[in-house]
Amino acid sequence: MSSTGAGGGWRRLWWSLAGRIWLTSVLLVALMGALGVGIAARLAILEQSVNQVLSRNYRSIQAANGMLAAIGALRGGGLTREEARSDFERLLNVQRHNETESGEGELTETIARQADGFFTAPAPGASGAAALEHSLAELIALNERAMFSADRHTVAVARASRVEALAVLLAAVMVLCASSYALSRSLVNRPLADLIRTVRMIDSEQSLRAMAPPPTSELAELADEFNAMIWRLLTDSAKRLAELDRERSKTGAIIESIEDGLIVLDPQRAIVHMNEVAGAILDVSHAGILGTRLQSLGERGSHAARLVAALDRRGADADGPIEFKVFLRGRDHSFLVRELPWTAANGTHDSPDEQGSAAALLGTVVLLQDVTLLRDREKAHSHLIATLSHELKTPLTSLRIAAELLGETVSEQLPERAREILATLQEDVARLQTIAGDLLDASRSSAARIGVERRPILLDKVVSEIARPLAMQAHEKGIALELRWPEHPLPIWGDPIKLPWVITNLVGNALRYTPAGGRITIELEQHDSVARAVVSDTGCGMEGPAMERIFEPYAQGADNPTRAGSAGLGLYITKEIVEAHNGRIFVRSGVGSGTTFTVEIPLREQMLG
Questions:
Q1: Residues 323 and 376 both lie in one domain
Q2: For the chain, how many structural domains are there in total?
Q3: Residue 212 is assigned to a structural domain of this protein
């Protein structure tokens, strides 16, 4: 089991990229180690040999010099014959133990014989001393030549060792380069090239394919992960394609089910889709329509030409919808054209020629909305307003004449309370006549907007003038009317006829929906740069659709239409008058908690600024 496990471990080590690099590194380290050990051993042997030879030669030279010194001391009288001979023989023995060169032994024995003759002569002569000194000089010269020869030999051996070390090092570097190239090519470059080739094939063929297994375990693991990713992508791609098909079918069904006409354009304003409703409106066939530029669509019929003409009239820089008419199903139909940007996920819709996020523009969606019914209702409303205003003018004129005649004939005979009621009646009839005339004029114009005559007035003074008749009406119904005045006057630019009618109408609505015992409050205040009039009651209140449509024409605030007692135009007209003063009106209400209307008109200083 152990040998099998060891063999498996070596196989795993060999088939892994890290293992092969490790084995190659170990081989190179062993080679470099063997080279270092061999060079070190050789240098050690050389060092030992050179040290031994040089030291013995050096000792021979020292011994020869000592023997020369002993002879000189004997001749100079510094030593006795016995002392000089003792020193000479001692040094001669040192020489005999350090003989290294060829012929050095014979020369040593010659020196010994000459010394023996020199020291045994009755009187040492100059010739014997000269011969001995000559032999010692030869011994010194022999050892010096030996030392020089050893030095040259050492230099030669060192040079040879250096050359051998450089050769082995160069061989090791070449082996390292060759092994690195082989490893990188077989273990890295080739598998990565296969991976890149597979990826390029996937990119060029737009299909997913697996990668062949590489020769190392790490890259084999990478290939396995890559192939697993390819499999997941194949699975996800199939799911996403199926989901895209479902979404495309659903989107197509939604587009075709839209009651309005819809045309989808690309960034060059060429048609990429048109639903059946748009084809019916423009009286064009779907056959061959895709790819046609919208500006060229006018050549396919009069209806399409009217759409193109309307777009041309608006111009490229204009915003907002435009309207055009075509004859369909026996009558004229009005269509509102809206152009909506079709953008990518980041929501930008700049020009596609710009840089950065501008590339998010994918096209334009042209929506053709049928507003024929809305236009018919507007005409009917204008006609009804004109009819009501016209029909009200005659009875209002009669009421005004009757009130003026009554005031001229019997006003002095009436009590104070009756005269106040008569004066209020005359003011209300005059105000109603003015409003009825304005409604009739507005209904005759295409804009159907109520005009106002702005004058410098005080809002608190205007409300105080109409407070008395409103208090009388509240008193008759058993409702408390509370007035809250501001600390300072509220100067505004306003119509002295129509603006009081706004407060009168709001209080009238409160009187209509507030039961007896309830309370109505009129509060005037300055809030920032606007004058604010708040009319609140404790009536039944409202919520939901009724409050959302409260300012629309013919809307009723109560669930029971018989309780309302009006045609539903009061708040619509009120809103028109407030907006004509550059103001705004809003409501807050809840069932059982009453209703609060707030009117805001800019102060006179703010309007002048």
A1: no
A2: 4
A3: no
At residue 391, does pLDDT exceed 80?
Answer: no
Which of 430, 449, 468 delimits the end of a domain? 449
Based on the fold, state whether residues 525 and 541 are members of the same structural domain.
yes
What mean pLDDT do residues 564-582 have? Answer: 77
- Residue 2 has a pLDDT of 47
Pair 568, 445 in one domain = no
Q: How confident is the model at residue 358 (pLDDT cuts 50, 70, 90)?
A: very low
**Half-sphere exposure at residue 61, Cβ-oriented, CA atoms within 13 angstroms:** 14
Q: What pTM value is reported for the model?
A: 0.40
User: Do 498 and 454 form a contact (C-beta atoms < 8 A)?
Assistant: no
Q: Which residues pair with 323 in a beta bridge?
A: 336
Give the side-chain half-sphere CA count within 13 A for 331. Answer: 6
What does each C-alpha distance from 576 to 459, 462, 593, 601 come to in angstroms?
A: 18, 19, 27, 13
Nearest by Cα to 335 from 259, 269, 265: 259
| 17 in Cβ contact with 219 (< 8 Å) | yes
Q: Residue 550 — very low, low, confident or very high, per pLDDT cuts 50/70/90? A: confident
Choose among 376, 417, 424, 364: nearest CA to 399.
424
Comparing 4 with 554, the larger pLDDT belongs to: 554
Q: Which domain holds residue 26?
A: 10-189
Q: If DSSP states are collapsed to H, E and C, what string results for 454-477?
A: CEEEEHHHHHHHHHHHHHHHHHHC
**322 lies in the same domain as 403:** no
Whether residue 175 contacts residue 31, with contact meaning beta carbons closer than 8 Å, is answered with: yes
- How far apart are alpha carbons 372 and 204 in whole angstroms? 54
Query: What is the model's pLDDT at position 566?
Result: 52
The one-letter amino acid code at 246 reads R
pLDDT tier at 16 (50, 70, 90 boundaries)?
Answer: low
Q: What is the DSSP letter of 293?
A: B
Is residue 177 in a domain?
yes
Q: Do the bridges between strand 455-458 and strand 519-527 make them parallel or antiparallel, or are there none, so unpaired?
A: unpaired
- The CA distance from 52 to 192, in Å, is 62
263 shares its domain with 331: yes
Q: Are both 362 and 389 inside the same structural domain?
A: no
Instruction: Look at residue 158 and tell me if it is in a domain.
Output: yes
Domain co-membership, 164 together with 100: yes
In Å, what is the CA distance from 348 to each residue of 225, 262, 425?
Answer: 38, 22, 61
**pLDDT tens digits for 141-181?**
888 887 777 777 777 777 777 777 777 778 777 877 777 67
94, 58 contact by CB (below 8 A)? no
DSSP classification of residue 488? S
pLDDT at 458 over 90: yes
Query: Looking at the structure, do residues 444 and 486 belong to the same domain, yes or no?
Result: no
Taking each helix axis from N to C terminus, what angle separates 81-96 and 104-120, rounded to the nearest 10 degrees? 170
In a domain, 281, yes or no: yes
Question: What distance in Å separates the CA atoms of residue 7 and residue 20, rounded to the nearest whole number?
Answer: 15
pLDDT given at position 608 = 43
